Amino acid sequence: MLRFILSRIIQGFVVVFAVIVITFGLLKASPGGPFNKERQMQPHVRAMIEAYYGLDQPWWVQLWRHVKGYASFHFPESLKMPGRGVDEIIAQGFPVSAAIGIPALLIALALGIPLGAFAALKPNSIEDRASMLLAMAGLCMPSLVLGPLIAMIFGLKLRWFNVSGWYDADDWVLPAATLGIIYSAYIARLTRGGLRETLAQDFIRTARAKGASEGAVVFRHAFKLACLPVLNYLGPAAAGLLTGSLVTETVFQIPGLGQHFISAAVNRDDNLAMATAAFYATLIVGFNLLVDIVQAALNPKIGFKS
Questions:
Q1: Does the reported pTM lie above 0.85?
Q2: How confident is the model over 42-51, as pLDDT tens digits?
Q3: Residue boundaries of the structural domains of the chain
Q4: Domain 1-306, second-level architecture
Q5: For the chain, where are the alpha helices, taking DSSP H only?
């Protein structure tokens, strides 16, 4: 098991390093620069600013400075928010996004798994088709549409929650419900497919032949393997939810981390763009490691193999 975990950790470091290098290359290949849009900036002033941030050095020196800084937890300053480190900006926005993402993930699991299991236990029935119709509606409904709809019903009509902003303790409810409903559609379809496939396996027929009850067959034998596709999906899904959804946070005016992913690239804040990309990659690697460990524990055929 230790060898398995160490192998995954080493692979994770390689992935994060590759993300940093690729992000750095894409930013350098993009036209313009961080200070090209600044008005009335004299050439000598621009040269001083670029020297301060190290942008006048060769690209390999800049890349090494970024890699060394991330490895030693000495993060650079934001290019567009002077005096603020990129770690400070991420630390300020991430708790807000996590306060929405964690409930959204729980809502997605609470809705998606029972809906998918219910459909799988009644294949080709009205219940199955109705459940998958709801899941398909969730897949096709973008957050740009679902968010304002939920805000109109529960915010403007019923006045249960604030329509936008981050002021009260329950301001997470509407954006979390929006994301949870959308993600539950994916989980429902994965649960149905995994459970239907598992129920057709030979060991399930053997368990039934030995007189096991249907509840024992489903929950003790089938569900453990049927949830593996859901676990595979939860790794990147959890990372995406915890780092914030740009559309949902924009709709509800939430000051989370999602706003920095796009604004950093659009405003050419290269330091912040690289930091958010590295942070997102680290979360995905960490969650995928947890998923691999859980999968290895649930499925003896996989085991802790490196």
A1: no
A2: 777 777 877 7
A3: 1-306
A4: Orthogonal Bundle (1.10)
A5: 2-29, 43-53, 59-71, 86-121, 126-140, 143-151, 173-199, 202-209, 214-216, 223-226, 228-242, 246-251, 258-266, 270-298
